[in-house]
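Readers of this paper often ask what the protein records in our data store actually look like. Such a record has a labelled line for the sequence and another for the backbone structure tokens. Nothing more is needed to write down the fold, since each code stands for a local backbone conformation. The record that follows is passed on verbatim for readers who wish to inspect the format.
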Amino acid sequence: MSVLNKYLPQFAVAPLTALIEQNQVHLKIVDERRTRHGDYRKNPDGSHGITINANLNAYRFTITLVHEIAHLVAFKKYGRDIKPHGVEWKHTFQQLMLPFLRPDIFPMDLLPVLARHFKNPKASSDTDAMMSVALKSYDPESDKSYIFELVQGSIFLGPNGRKFQKAEKLRKRYKCVEIHTGKVYLFQPNAQVIPLM
């Protein structure tokens, strides 16, 4: 699994390699998918496959890989009738992630954010705005901004390439109007967009 050296923090490689081997996972690193960072599936032949996006920074890659292994371990332990992100998965994810929450794997500024997140992990790290922003700070420079950083009335390109104008904030999300159709969409505050004006 020396290929993992390219994607993981140095001290996460050996324990994650052991988890992959112990659970007999076929890991595939793939081009970016907009809708997910990774996924787990049990193949028709009974083998276990996990795919992870190649463009993730080392810290998000670590969390995503453990997230997907937690699906496999939870299904093995509790059966396939559990909810994919239910209490059994959350407990499994917490237990598997705990050994990685240390300063030789994650930077000191991320550890408190991760500790808070893993008290009740979400189905996606992107739905935890604080964690998403903290992890994003370790990505390479980008021309993208977060919705919450834009002033009301700003025009931007959404993830699908369509133009929107930022409107008012609701309880948690922002109303944004698609310029071409006038339809209103709701955006998470940590959605990444390309500001135009």
Q: What stands out?
A: The helical segments are 10-22, 58-78, 87-97, 111-117, 129-136.
